[in-house]
Amino acid sequence: SATGAGNWDVECTATTQRGIAKSDLQGRGVTSTDALLIRDVRRASCTYETGDAPVTLKLMEEGLACPFGGFETGLCQTVLPANTSGTFELLPE
Question: 72 pLDDT exceeds 70?
């Protein structure tokens, strides 16, 4: 899931048991939350672009390694700084 204020975008392309799945999480304007639900993810590549405010990403899928470093208190999450772009991958544990 992603939560943030302003305009932001997270796009992911995932490889699943059924093939390729694409998804786009977006925030427009006021603080908003969007969630991506893809079952049986084997791996995923994501790109992001944040606006004038930071965006918090949380990974809640079991079986995937936390791409943001270690799990903090059982949660895999990170805060993307404002006005940045980049990529991350989701891989099996």
Answer: no
